[in-house]
């Protein structure tokens, strides 16, 4: 499938991509190959694809994967996928689900893949990127890895260093090892989005610090409540303690009380959660 095929399908089914739904169809074959190679797919792999659109990536995934479950919210696109893939030689390995991926439950994934491990490989709709990342990073039945097409700006945020950290970056780095595989021009899509994109690979960690994870993320939320405020002030307000008590906690964690949340490293947050 290529750009000509995509245009033909759009004409055949009278599809007008909805920008509000993040519908930008990837058409560059070289980029598709990069995504698939990055996922290091084997014939034993199960794949969850979110937002398959017209199925150009789906087709590539089916060439190798044991099973592909493509979750598409748009009813028209869902219908097109079912109609077009009936002719595909690998159709028996494909399950097309008309559902909002953000509403998937662990039991749904278990049913899809018979309780087996799975990977997420997807050109996800940009309007739900952060929500998808948070959902599956914190999921009770997480993937072993995620290879995703995201906005270039989001990719850069995911690999942020102290001084530029955000809640999303901390969450992503806590749960996974992250690599930016490649930058992708907006010209590789129909219609072209307003920004360039990146392929990112998130390999989910098997081991995590021995901390209260709920408290860890609660402290992060409190600390980022007002980004311009010093950390001691945000902690004091969020934990309902005095500034001097907040300073004492931060000092015990070897953190400068006058620093700001975005300046801390992942290790700093782990140490702080142990002290609070």
Give a written overview of the molecule:
- There is one protein chain.
- The chain has helices at residues 3-12, 29-38, 56-62, 75-85, 106-113, 129-137, 152-158, 167-175, 213-223, 231-239, 243-252, 266-275, and strands at residues 25-26, 46-50, 67-71, 94-97, 119-123, 145-151, 176-184, 189-190, 197-204.
- With 276 residues, the protein is an alpha/beta fold.
- It folds into two domains: 3-204, Rossmann fold, CATH 3.40.50.150; 213-275, Helicase, Ruva Protein, domain 3 (Orthogonal Bundle).
- Strands 4-3-2-5-6-9-7 form a seven-stranded mixed sheet, with helices on both faces. Strands 1-8 form a two-stranded antiparallel ribbon.
- The radius of gyration is 21 Å and the shape is elongated.
Considering the protein shown, what is the CATH homologous superfamily of the largest domain? Vaccinia Virus protein VP39
Tertiary shape:
elongated
Q: In CATH's first tier, which class of the largest domain applies? A: Alpha Beta
Total domain modules: 2
The helix-strand sequence is: HEHEHEHEHEHEHHEEEHHHH
| Poorly predicted residue ranges | none
Proportion of beta-strand residues: 15-25%
What's this entry about, in short?
By secondary structure, the protein is an alpha/beta fold. It is built from twelve helices and nine strands.
């Amino acid at each position: 499938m290529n750009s000509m095929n995509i245009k033909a399908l759009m004409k055949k089914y009278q599809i007008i991509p909805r920008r509000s739904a993040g519908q930008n169809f990837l058409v560059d074959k070289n980029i598709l190959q990069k995504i698939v190679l990055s996922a290091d797919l084997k014939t034993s792999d199960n794949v969850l694809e979110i937002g398959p659109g017209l199925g150009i990536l789906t087709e590539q995934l089916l060439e190798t994967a044991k099973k592909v479950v493509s979750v598409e919210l748009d009813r028209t696109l869902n219908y097109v996928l079912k109609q077009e893939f009936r002719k595909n030689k690998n159709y028996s390995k494909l399950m097309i689900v008309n559902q909002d991926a953000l509403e998937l439950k662990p039991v749904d994934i278990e049913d899809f893949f018979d309780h087996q491990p799975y990977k997420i490989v997807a050109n996800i709709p940009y309007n739900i990127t952060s929500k998808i990342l948070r959902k599956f990073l914190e999921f009770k039945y997480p993937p072993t890895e995620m290879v995703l097409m995201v906005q270039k700006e989001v990719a850069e945020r995911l690999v942020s260093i102290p001084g530029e950290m955000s809640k999303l970056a901390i969450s992503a780095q806590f749960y996974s090892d992250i690599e930016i595989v490649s930058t992708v021009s907006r010209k590789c899509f129909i219609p072209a989005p307003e920004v360039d994109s990146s392929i990112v690979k998130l390999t989910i960690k098997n081991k995590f610090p021995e901390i209260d994870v709920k408290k860890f993320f609660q402290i992060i939320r409190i600390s980022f409540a007002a980004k311009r405020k010093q950390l001691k002030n945000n902690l004091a307000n969020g934990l309902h303690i005095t500034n001097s008590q907040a300073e004492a906690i931060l000092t015990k964690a070897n953190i400068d009380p006058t620093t700001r949340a975005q300046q801390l490293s992942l290790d700093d947050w782990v140490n702080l959660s142990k002290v609070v």
